[in-house]
Specification:
The protein has 579 residues and is an alpha/beta fold. Helices cover 29% and strands 21% of the residues. The two termini are 58 Å apart.
């Protein structure tokens, strides 16, 4: 780590000198020249107190002072007013006045909500040449001011570098290979440097250069809440962190999909080729794209055009267009290409091990789901997710047009109120609230649904597709999961309404001694996505199955070297326990 830190200092020296790193904060009467003061008389019981005010820009300073006087009910007697960016710092003569002022936190002023905070570690200011308010030197260290805007001397440069390294050390998590760079404008180190990341991207360039030397193996970076309109300040992120897999740009101000180009395969020579998760929630781009015709599909298409390897977008799983090894960066892995088109089959399992796993899991799951949903508690993982989507459109197949069950008017309100149909839900808040995350939330969601009966003993009424997926895991071999998509029908026991469904499970092997293993389940549920549709029969797979239902009725599946003997035994035990 010490060697990496030394290299970081050499690289960032060169970078800062080449860039001439300067931040120009918006100030009315302020010359920013230094950092936090290490000690101050501010905050004494009978001495001056400093309060910061955000959100005042809707009117003039004089109008704000009059407003505060009126709301407090007496003159607040502000001694000094200073600025760093959009934040106003006021000095009050007595603590009781400050306490009265803080009661106004959250009040609206000229169309903006004011945020008032008591500065327990006040920012110290000193008179400037042309004003009564200038940001004073505090912990300048090495004889420098420690301020980016005045970083001309070598002493200033050393202070800036040291403070940026300190910032990274407080925000890095080496256990998860992650770096949290969210809300940098509110970080005390950034404020002390007089920097405004939302207006000058050079601070991000400097941070990335240093971080790449200190933590070259980062896989996750959080850049939420930084006011990004453009991603040009982080355009080199792919060069600095070639193994980056997870990137959050949540709650920024990106309004054009093309702003993603500079870090993507479209506009960068070093794109994020291993990216598996991207979060854009809270950016104008999401609302703009989703409000267009066929918005959700087009939004996904545009993002995947730029990041074809992602398997998670805005916390939702998506099918990657390319896998990392197909980008040429992991060409050492041998894979046999599959020729399309495949012939249609009623049941697809990638291998016999997956087939045995599904034949053991699915009948047992639906038996518990129908007869004792609380019994599923041990089978969902602690971090499981569940979502429900309702397709209320009338089926148009020839079968449906002649089927009384398909034509029957059915009240779907018990499902629709929790439906997460992403083609219709445009609100990000609703998209998040309808996703049950965590063991307790999942169990509550599924137990609130109407009681059902799935005829799993009737082979012809069900079909499934199952295959393996590999999920990269930091510092260890990829985790092998099973994707299982079940198609079938069920009966609502109270209404006797017949409905069709599709249910997608993401399954992980259950660990020996785990709660799932103790009840005989060979796997745990990581993700459960249920789609409910009006009844449309099983004509799409008219011939009998030799998969799920056949094995369920006989109580055994084919022997397979793909499952360990103890897992095969678990599968059989689950079938016996659940009938």
């Amino acid at each position: 780590m010490a060697e990496a830190g030394a290299e970081a200092i050499r690289d960032r020296d060169s970078f800062l000198e080449e860039e001439g790193l300067t931040v120009h904060s918006e100030t009315t009467r302020v010359g920013i020249t230094a950092s936090f003061s290490g000690s101050s008389a501010f905050g004494a019981a009978d001495g001056p107190v400093q309060v910061s005010i955000k959100g005042w820009r809707g009117d003039t300073e004089a109008a704000l002072v009059r407003f505060l006087d009126n709301k407090v009910g007496r003159p607040v007697n502000i001694d000094n007013i200073n600025y760093i960016g959009d934040i106003m710092y006021v000095t009050l003569p007595y603590r009781d006045i400050a306490q009265d002022l803080l009661k106004l936190n959250g009040i609206w002023f000229s169309g903006n909500k004011l945020s008032l905070q008591l500065r327990t570690h006040p920012v110290k200011f000193r008179p400037g040449d042309n004003s009564r308010n200038s940001y004073a030197g505090g912990e300048s260290g090495a004889g420098g001011s420690g301020n980016i805007s005045n970083a001309g001397s070598s002493g200033d440069s050393v202070v800036i570098k040291d403070r940026l390294m300190s910032l990274l050390q407080t925000r890095a998590n080496m256990q998860s290979n992650s770096l949290d760079l969210s809300s940098l404008s509110q970080d005390s180190i950034i404020i002390a440097l007089g920097a405004d990341p939302s207006r000058d991207g050079k601070i991000f360039k400097a941070i990335l250069v240093i971080a790449a030397q200190m933590y070259p193996n980062l896989e996750t970076i959080n850049l939420a809440d930084n006011g990004f309109h453009s991603l040009k300040p982080i355009a080199d992120i792919g060069a600095h962190f070639p193994n980056l897999r997870n990137l959050s740009l949540m709650n920024n101000r990106i309004a054009d999909i093309r702003e993603l180009d500079c870090v993507s395969s479209i506009g960068s020579t070093v794109p994020l080729s291993h990216l598996s998760e991207l979060i854009l929630i809270g950016n104008p781009i999401c609302d703009i794209e989703l409000q267009q015709p066929n918005g959700a599909a087009n939004y996904l298409e545009k993002v995947q055009k730029r990041f074809p390897t992602i398997s998670m977008l805005d916390t939702n799983p998506v099918a990657p267009i390319l896998h990392a090894e197909q980008t040429g960066l992991e060409s050492n892995r041998n894979s046999l290409p599959k020729e399309l088109p495949f012939s249609a089959v009623h049941v697809f399992a990638e291998n016999s091990g997956i087939s045995d796993l599904v034949n053991g899991f699915v009948p047992g799951f639906f038996s518990l789901y129908d007869g004792n949903r609380a019994g599923l508690a041990d089978i969902y993982s602690p971090a499981a997710q569940f979502s429900l989507m309702v397709d209320s459109t009338q089926p148009t197949s020839a079968f449906a047009r002649s089927s009384a069950d398909s034509q029957k008017h059915i009240d779907l309100s018990a499902y629709i109120r929790n439906s997460r149909n992403l083609t219709r839900i445009k609100s990000h808040q609703k998209r998040i609230s309808t996703l049950a995350s965590g063991h307790m939330a999942v169990m509550q969601a599924i137990t609130e649904l109407p009681t059902t009966h799935h005829p799993v003993d009737e082979a012809q009424k069900f079909s499934f597709d199952a295959w393996e997926v590999q999920v990269p895991s930091s510092g260890s071999p990829p985790q092998v999961l099973a994707m299982v998509v079940v198609h079938g029908e069920f009966l609502e026991t109270l209404t006797q309404n017949k409905l069709s469904f599709d249910r997608t499970f993401v399954l992980a092997p259950s660990s020996p001694g785990s709660a799932a293993a103790s009840v005989g389940s060979p796997c745990i549920i990581v993700n459960d996505m249920l789609t409910i549709r009006r009844y449309n029969g099983f004509h799409s797979w008219a011939s009998p199955l030799d998969g799920i239902a056949t094995s369920a009725s006989t109580g055994s599946g084919s022997s397979s070297s793909g499952l360990a003997p103890e897992q095969q035994e678990m599968a059989r035990a689950l079938q016996e326990q659940t009938g």
